[in-house]
Amino acid sequence: MSQTYGIAAPGQHAGEPHRPAARYLVVIDSEGGRIARLFTAQREAVGEFDAGTDDLVRLTGGRTPAHGATGPEWDAALAGHSDAERRAAEVYTLEP
Asked: Does the CA dihedral 28-29-30-36 come out positive or negative?
């Protein structure tokens, strides 16, 4: 008699590498609302969510942001945002 209760066991994992962890959290205005965007150390976007959620409080608790994301390292990552939005952005560095 099977001990799986009719549920098939999951297959083997593919062994693919995981994507890099988020290193930066940018809180920025976007079309009238504030969003939080997550980026890797190479400034590749890995996630985005509403900045009004409790998740933002948990991620930023006890951290002091840098103000403005106007450096050339942010040009490609934040290309869809205006200069004013980028100047007003808050950039949090997350633990590796």
From this structure: positive
What tokens does 53 get?
């959620």
Query: How far, in Å, CA of 89 to CA of 81, rounded?
Result: 10
Percent of the chain with pLDDT over 90: 62
Exposed, middle or buried by CB within 10 Å (0-12, 13-18, 19+), for 39? buried
Question: First vs last Cα of the chain: how many Å apart?
Answer: 47
Positive or negative CA dihedral for 80, 86, 90, 92? positive
What are the pLDDT digits (tens) for 46-74? 999 999 999 898 889 889 999 999 999 99
How far apart (Å, rounded) are the C-alpha atoms in residues 27 and 48?
10
Q: Are 24 and 93 in contact (CB under 8 A)?
A: yes
How far, in Å, CA of 34 to CA of 50, rounded? 7
- Looking at the DSSP bridge assignments, the partners of residue 47 are 38
